[in-house]
Amino acid sequence: MSDNDLPWLKHTKLFRSPIDGWKKVFTDRERLLYPKGSIIIKQGITIEKLLYIFTGTVEYSKVDEEGNEVLIDVLGANNLFMIAPLFTGIPPLGSFTAVEDTVAAAISIQEMKSLMKSDFTLTEELLYDLSMKSNNHISRLQKHYTYKVDHRIIETLCALADQQGMRLFINQQDLAELADTTRVTVSKLFRDLKSENIIRPIYGGIIIQDYSRLKNWQKQI
Question: Max alpha carbon distance in the chain (Å)?
Answer without folding.
Answer: 61
